[in-house]
Amino acid sequence: MDWNRSKTIFIGVFLILNIFLYSQYLDNYNGGQQLEVLGKTTEIESRLKEDNITYVSLPTNIEVTSYFLGTIKNFKSSEVPYFANQRTEIVDDNKLVVTMEKPVKLRETTTKDSYTEFLHSYVHEGASYVLWKVDEEKRQAMFFQKINNRTLYYNVRGYVQIYWDEEGRVFAYEQTILENHEKFENKKSILPPIQVLQILYGKNLLPPDSQVTRMNLGYSTLVQVTETQVFAPTWEVRVLTSDKTEVIHFVNAVDGKVVDIQNDLTESATVEDTEE
Description:
- It contains 3 helices and 16 strands.
- It has helices spanning 3-50, 112-122, 193-202, and strands at 54-55, 64-65, 68-72, 86-91, 95-105, 129-135, 140-147, 150-151, 159-164, 169-175, 178-183, 188-189, 211-225, 228-240, 246-252, 258-259.
- The strands form 3 sheets. Strands 1, 3, 11, 13, 14, 15 and 16 form a 7-stranded mixed sheet that branches. Strands 4, 5, 6, 7, 8, 9 and 10 form a 7-stranded antiparallel sheet that branches.
- The relative contact order is 0.18.
């Protein structure tokens, strides 16, 4: 018997059990907070108005969801997805670094649809990723994997990044995948958007004269146990400040904690711009 492997499995099981018990506590706690929140809704709306903080129409149809589990996809040479015109290298077992033998011309680099079209046509399970950011100066586009059809924010094990040259031709991309997605059986009550704004306002993260331009429900990584990860429902809140700077905040949609997500994947960058 491989004792080290068994020990790792036991640790993982206990950590996941602790998360489950903690989530049960949060259910009870949040249930007791609902009446208090309802009473404060008018108050926070008034305060936001006084500080000239405006917001878009808030989501109204999300009340419950679940935590999710996922595992890191490790690739074997025999399992590497095949696409014509591509040379693939496996890096650290779980990352595909792909070079196009003949660069593929994007339809145009000024619309988001062009990048998504490339993913759907040339990337394994490309439809499982959503465009997050385009850096026209560096000629890179970042996609995040979707879990439960929602964006998983900044997980280095679930992303695609594509690279193109000055002529708008994609010459390489890299990819990691999280698989075996499984949801926890017990569903969680989701903090309503107005309460999330109240949390951010109370932490001085909504400055006067700012505008909340978007609120979207996704997932962030709660804990990683060897190859297994747990994802927590997370509100993405985009704020445009008075000087037109966009700031993105992430708030755990169950316990209301502001999530400090490392918002770059620099450790994953392995492709150099070697234009042909």
